Structures are given as structure tokens and as C-alpha cells.
Amino acid sequence: MRNEEKEPSTEEEVCKPLTDEEFKEYQEKDARTTKKVMGVFSAVWDAITTFFN
Fold first, then answer.
1. Span between the terminal Cα atoms of the chain, in Å
2. Over the stretch 14-49, which tens digit does the pLDDT of each residue have?
3. In this structure, are residues 8 and 14 in contact, taking their beta carbons and an 8 Å threshold?
4. CB 18 within 8 A of CB 26
5. Backbone dihedral region of 28: left (phi > 0), alpha (psi from -120 to 50 degrees) or beta?
6. What is the DSSP string of 1-53?
7. Under 8 Å CB-to-CB from 14, ≥6 apart: which residues?
8. pTM summary value
9. In whole angstroms, how large is the CA radius of gyration of the chain?
């Protein structure tokens, strides 16, 4: 039996904490995505309420 060192495979992600800059970028991207999704839902909701009123 071979004794191999444990190395993360290319298929597995290695969990590392984000740097402050990376975390800020993530938050900004998440905020933009949330704003877009909420805009779509708002437009759909307005169309539904307009149609049924």
C-alpha cells in the first residue's frame, strides 16, 4: 500500500478565508444581483396588480 500525501484534488474546492478586498467585491456583486432580481419581481408584481385592478 502506497502512503500518499493528502493533496486536494482539482475537483474539490479548498476553503480559504476571503481577503477584505475579495469580500468587498463579493458584497458589491451580490448587491447588484439582488437589485436586478428585485427589479424584475417588482415589474412582474406591478403588471399583475395592474391587470387585476
1. 74
2. 888 989 999 999 999 999 999 999 999 999 999 999
3. yes
4. yes
5. alpha
6. ---------TTSPPP-PPPHHHHHHHHHHHHHHHHHHHHHHHHHHHHHHHHH-
7. 8
8. 0.58
9. 22
> In one letter, which amino acid is 41?
F
Q: Which residue has the cell 436586478?
A: 36
Residues in the chain: 53
Grid cell at residue 29: 456583486
Q: Using an 8 Å Cβ cutoff, are 48 and 40 in contact?
A: no
Cell readout for 30 is 451580490
Cell triple for 44: 412582474
